Structure formats: structure tokens, C-alpha cells
């Protein structure tokens, strides 16, 4: 249900077949990639920012 929540999909679209399993898999891959990229950015910031405000 992650894609349904993240992309604001209606249950009727899921039930009607307007969105198929390939679409859901693609959206899941995108969400995984986005989370991985955000984690990498946070790690980089933690390692490289010195707090020189």
C-alpha cells in the first residue's frame, strides 16, 4: 500500500485494473530508490558538515 499512499491512488483504480502489478512494482522501486538516496545524502551530510555556522 506504500504506492497507494505516496501517490494518492484511489482504491477504485487498484480494483479496476487501471493500475496493474507492474505499475505498483515500478512505484515501489521508485520509493525504495528515493529512500536510499535520502539516506545517502544524510550520511554524506553527517560525515562532511562541520557546523561552521
From TrEMBL:
Which Pfam families does this one have? DUF6889
Top-rank taxon: Bacteria
- The entry's protein name is Lytic transglycosylase
Amino acid at each position: 500500500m506504500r504506492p497507494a499512499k505516496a501517490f494518492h491512488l484511489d482504491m477504485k483504480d487498484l480494483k479496476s485494473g487501471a493500475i496493474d502489478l507492474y505499475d505498483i512494482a515500478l512505484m515501489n522501486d521508485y520509493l525504495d530508490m528515493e529512500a536510499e538516496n535520502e539516506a545517502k545524502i544524510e550520511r554524506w551530510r553527517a560525515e562532511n558538515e562541520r557546523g561552521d555556522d
